[in-house]
Design brief:
heterodimer, A: Beta-Lactamase, 5 helices, globular, B: Metallo-beta-lactamase, Chain A, 14% helix, 27% strand
């Protein structure tokens, strides 16, 4: 497997040092890395899963909107950023491992290198402390 | 390939009685294959190059890793730059905001230097490294951005079936204990993988590094771990801290190799040394 771009490697180092969940995806939407706080959302450890295709990670935490309608992967900010290469933000609900519904906000940004190459995206999840 | 170390010191040049063994010039490495040559970085070491020798080509190719002063400060006084018949190609990292030429011009212009870049008499061409290999004579040169403040390239030079990897300024992980377990998450891994010779940053001892996270440099331990991980055949520890005397560098080297079983050779970079690859 070829090396990741330096922007992605440094983003992982940043994510490793944060206490908020962070996801990193490549330009195809494959989940390359998620930090320890994000493991609680996915219910899996990165060291166990390794990278995951978008079809797997995008549905693992059962995202749904205010009406209870499931959000498909293409409705998630991170997937939108992959498609548009611009930042995206959305507040929605996910199912926690304990079965609670948690209201979260997700902000995603494109990772664009110094040479202008789009090398993926980063998303930060924020728990709004509204549980159902 | 032959690799000559003209400058091995990091940060700024030194010239004291305590720095004679390893040398005081800042980074510059001359790589030759037969009578063809490329030059890596243009620190004050470049002033020691005999530009009249080993030269079949009508041009001089200089590959800059980045534009920190210790890697370019010899450029302004490099004699071929003032020969109107000399073609010189300077390669270096791209940046999203300004061209390589614009950034170099900040140094090669008043008030830092009396002659603006446009008035340099040689036939000067300034090229940003592309995302693919560059071929110069027998050399095939690949580059990648690596972990160091500001746009910084590492280089992989292939010639005659041999590989030189040059990473004079590199902090592969920042304040983290050890490299990531997956190769694709190791800065510059593809450049260094299985190289016959790796020239790598080793500015600090382990204690100093604890105080200098994010400054962009490695400890000797980190360089050795990086060489082990990438499977190189020989490691040259480079970019010596200007505050380290010969005696200190001797002791740092002794500490890093004692009681350690390595399956590659390792040595300290010595100004003027020639290494056959």
């Amino acid at each position: 497997m070829p090396s990741n771009a330096i922007q992605m490697i440094l983003s992982r180092q940043l994510a490793d040092s944060l206490s908020v969940p962070v996801f990193l995806v490549d330009p195809e939407g494959n989940l390359l890395f998620y930090n320890v706080p994000a493991e609680a959302i996915l219910g899996q450890k990165f060291e166990d899963t390794g990278p995951m295709p978008v079809g797997d990670w995008g549905t693992n935490f059962f995202p749904f909107d205010e009406d209870g309608t499931p959000i498909p992967p293409e409705g998630l900010p991170l997937v939108q950023t992959i498609h548009t290469q611009v930042p995206a933000h959305r507040t929605f609900w996910i199912k926690s491992l304990s079965g609670d519904s948690i209201n979260i906000s997700v902000s995603s940004i494109p990772l664009i290198g110094r040479d202008g190459d789009f090398c993926g995206a980063m998303a930060i999840f924020w728990n709004n402390k509204r549980n159902l | 390939m032959k690799v000559k170390l003209h400058g091995t010191r990091g940060s700024y040049p030194v010239s004291t009685a305590q720095n004679q063994k390893y040398g005081g010039n800042t980074p510059c490495v001359e790589v030759t294959e037969g009578r063809q040559r490329i030059i890596m970085d243009a620190g004050t070491g470049i002033l020691g190059i005999d530009f009249g020798a080993y030269q079949d080509s009508d041009r001089i190719d200089i590959f800059l890793t980045h534009l920190h002063m210790d890697h370019i400060q010899g450029l302004a006084f490099c004699k071929p730059l003032f020969n109107p018949n000399q073609k010189i190609v300077i390669w270096g990292p791209a940046d999203s905001e300004e061209s390589l030429k614009t950034r170099l011009n900040r140094f090669l212009s008043p008030p830092l230097f009396p002659i603006p870049l446009r008035d340099i008499p040689s036939q000067l061409e300034i090229c940003e490294m592309p995302n693919q290999a560059v071929e110069v004579g027998p050399f095939r040169i690949l580059s990648e951005y690596i972990s160091h403040p500001g746009p910084t390239l590492g280089y992989r030079v292939e010639s005659g079936g041999k590989v030189l990897t040059y990473m004079p300024d590199h902090e592969p992980t920042i304040g983290r204990q050890g490299l990531y377990p997956e190769d694709e998450w190791v800065s510059g891994f593809d450049l260094a993988a299985n190289a016959d010779l790796l020239i790598h940053d080793s500015q600090y001892d382990a204690g100093e590094y604890q105080q200098k996270f994010g400054w962009g440099h490695s400890s000797l331990d980190m360089a050795v771990e990086y060489a082990e991980r990438t499977g190189v055949k020989k490691l040259v520890l480079f970019h010596h801290d200007p505050n380290h005397s010969d005696a200190q560098l001797d002791e740092m080297f002794r500490a890093i190799v004692q009681n350690r079983s390595l399956d590659f050779s390792v040595e300290m970079a010595v100004q003027g040394a020639e290494i056959a690859v």
